[in-house]
Amino acid sequence: MRKIVCFFLCLGLVACSKSGEAVEMTDPPKQQQSQAAAQKAPAKSASAPFKRYRAQIINTFPHDTDAFTQGLFFHDGALYEGTGQRGQSALRQLELETGKVIKSKKLEDRFFGEGIVLWGDKIISLTWQAGTGLVHSLDGFEELARFYYDGEGWGLTASPTELIMSDGSSFLRFLDPTTFEETSRISVTAGGDKVTRINELEWVNGLVFANLWQSNFIAQIDPTTGKVVGVIDLSGLLKPEDITAKTDVLNGIAYDKETNRLFVTGKNWPKLFEIKLIEVN
Ligand SMILES: [Ca+2]
User: Are 208 and 223 in contact (CB under 8 A)?
Assistant: First the structure.
């Protein structure tokens, strides 16, 4: 039985055993994620040691319902998306307003694409359980190099000086952006409790925004302490008429620092949203 995670209990995402003890739900296979699990409403917690936010939708854009979004960032007017599923994973450049694919590169069939991030003129990406990082050119998606990591690769973003990687656990790993060696790691906590299932990442004004897998929540993490300082509740972002059998969980955060725009979407979602955060404490 895995460790009790009071943070998820606080957010209404933990099942209770017969004894009343809160236990973390067993992970299903990653590619079989439950939209239903992501729709649970958070419980109120007056003592939550973090700020709480909801989203105001500023703009809605089309998103490819065949795109199993695993990585997302915005650069120079375009979206870049890394998609998952073995045999279907790809690196794509997209037109924001239409969702039209500007260019795309399919990954090897054995790779399940995960997080992507821009570093200089290169796109760095992860491949879930293959332990292989890929380096592509930004302009032509030409593969330039590979690197290797222990364990699983989930989300990827970057501070001004380092790459930041999640692996599905409570840890964020910090990597040297040129050697890809791990330089340090921190455990992410909320009120002293570990926060697990940290998925897609985005660096936003000195904080790491992180999708929490199988939830409608984005955690705002202080990268120096690992503490969750805010939680964004995105429940209800998709309307019932938007949801089909193939609609999967919230995943994918992109920030346009030039215009201060924040974008979110999900795996196989029909829409991508520009949102504004409204504090609800
Ligand atoms: Ca991102």
Answer: yes
Residue 94: inside a domain, yes or no? yes
28 CA distance to ligand 1 centroid (A)?
23
Q: Is 27 part of any domain?
A: no
Query: In degrees, to the nearest 5, what angle opens at C-alpha 279 toward C-alphas 15 and 4?
Result: 20
Q: Which residues contact 69 (CB under 8 A, 6 or more apart)?
A: 63, 81, 82, 83, 84, 200, 251, 252, 265, 266, 267, 268, 269
Residues near ion ligand 1 (Cβ under 5 Å)? 72-73, 202, 253
Q: By the 8 A CB rule, do 72 and 117 touch? A: no
CATH number of the domain enclosing 187: 2.120.10.30
Could you give the number of structural domains in the chain? Answer: 1
Q: What is the pTM of this model?
A: 0.86
Distance 20 CA to ligand 1 centre (A): 37
Give the domain range for residue 272.
50-279
| Spacing, Cα 158 to ligand 1 middle (Å) | 9
Q: What's the alpha-carbon Rg for the chain, to the nearest Å?
A: 18
In a domain, 185, yes or no: yes
Answer whether residue 28 is part of any domain. Answer: no
* Ligand 1: centre distance to CA 263 (Å): 9
**12 within 8 A of 43, measured Cβ to Cβ:** yes
Query: Do 246 and 65 touch, CB atoms closer than 8 A?
Result: yes
104-156 per-position pLDDT tens digit:
999 999 999 999 999 999 999 999 999 999 999 999 999 999 999 999 999 99
